[in-house]
Write a structure and sequence with these properties.
single chain, 254 residues, alpha+beta, four-stranded mixed beta sheet, 4 helices, 11 strands, 29% strand
C-alpha cells in the first residue's frame, strides 16, 4: 500500500484587508485591469491632464501608483511608481513636467503591517521622485512597464515571459506555464496550494515555492509568482520580508 505525506508551510507575512490604512489614497482592486479609482485619490493637474495618486500592495508592498485622465472620468491603466508608503503623518504630492514627487513630513512612531518596506526604501527619506518616462516605459509592449517587470522578474524583452500564450499583464501566473500532464503528487500539491490561496482576501502578490516543478495556480485576484526554492531565498534577500510565500511538499512512501 502506498501512502502520501504532505508538508505545508507559510513563509513571510500575510496581510489582510480587514485592517486598512488610515491614509485615504488606497485601492484594493486588481490593478492588472482596473480603470476606476477611489474618489479619495489625490488629484493633481498637469497641463490639462488630471492625475490621481493612490496606494496599493499589488506588487507585494504598500507603494504609490498613478493614473491619468483628460476628462476626470476615463482613466489610464494603473502606473507603478515604486515610491514607498512610509509610516508618517503628513504626505504631499505634486506633478512637474518630468516628475512625480511625493514629500513626507512629521514622522509617525508606530509599528504595523505598513512598516514592511521593500529593501532599498529608505524610511528616513523625505522626498521621492520618479520620472513620467519611467512610469510609461514598456520595452516589450505587454502593458506592464519595465519598472513593474523588474519587480516581478518577468522578461522586459518578451511580452509572454512563460510562453503560455497570455501576455504578461493579463497573466496571473507570469512565470509559469502549465505542464501538459500532472503527476498525482503534483495534483495534490496544486490542490492544497489553491485551497490556501483561496484564504487570501487581498490582491497582494503571493509567491508559491515550486517544490514539484513549475505549474500554474488559480486565485480569485492578484499575481502569483511561481519560484524555485533558491529564487524564493533570493527574493527575500533582495526585497526583504512582507510578501507571503507558500510552500507545500507532497511525498510518497512505499
Amino acid at each position: 500500500m502506498k501512502y502520501f505525506t504532505l508538508t505545508l508551510f507559510l513563509l513571510g507575512t500575510s496581510l489582510s484587508t480587514k485592517a486598512k490604512p488610515e491614509i485615504p489614497q488606497y485601492t484594493w482592486g486588481d490593478l492588472s485591469a482596473q480603470r476606476q479609482y477611489p474618489k479619495s485619490c489625490k488629484l493633481l493637474a498637469d497641463n490639462g491632464v488630471t492625475w490621481c495618486l493612490f496606494v496599493s500592495n499589488y506588487l507585494g508592498f504598500y507603494e504609490f501608483w498613478a493614473a491619468n485622465s483628460t476628462d476626470g472620468e476615463n482613466w489610464s491603466q494603473a502606473l507603478y511608481t515604486g515610491i514607498p508608503l512610509l509610516p508618517r503623518k503628513n504626505i504631499s504630492a505634486r506633478v512637474t513636467l518630468p516628475h512625480f514627487i511625493v514629500q513626507y513630513d512629521s514622522v509617525e512612531k508606530r509599528l504595523s503591517y505598513l512598516d514592511y518596506l521593500r529593501n532599498g526604501s529608505n524610511a528616513d527619506t523625505k522626498m521621492f521622485r520618479v520620472t513620467k518616462s519611467a512610469l510609461l516605459g514598456d520595452s516589450d509592449l505587454d502593458g506592464w512597464s519595465d519598472l513593474v517587470e523588474s519587480r516581478i522578474w518577468t522578461d522586459l524583452q518578451n511580452a509572454d515571459t512563460d510562453g503560455d500564450g497570455v501576455i504578461d499583464r493579463f497573466d496571473s501566473n507570469p512565470l509559469a506555464a502549465e505542464p501538459d500532464t500532472l503527476t498525482l503528487e503534483q495534483r495534490l500539491h496544486k490542490y492544497i496550494i489553491e485551497q490556501e490561496l483561496g484564504l487570501y482576501d487581498t490582491h497582494q502578490l503571493v509567491i508559491v515555492e515550486q517544490t514539484h516543478g513549475s505549474m500554474q495556480y488559480k486565485r480569485q485576484s492578484g499575481l502569483i509568482l511561481s519560484l524555485p526554492p533558491e529564487d524564493c531565498d533570493e527574493w527575500i534577500q533582495l526585497y526583504g520580508p512582507g510578501v507571503p510565500i507558500i510552500t507545500c511538499h507532497v511525498g510518497r512512501h512505499q
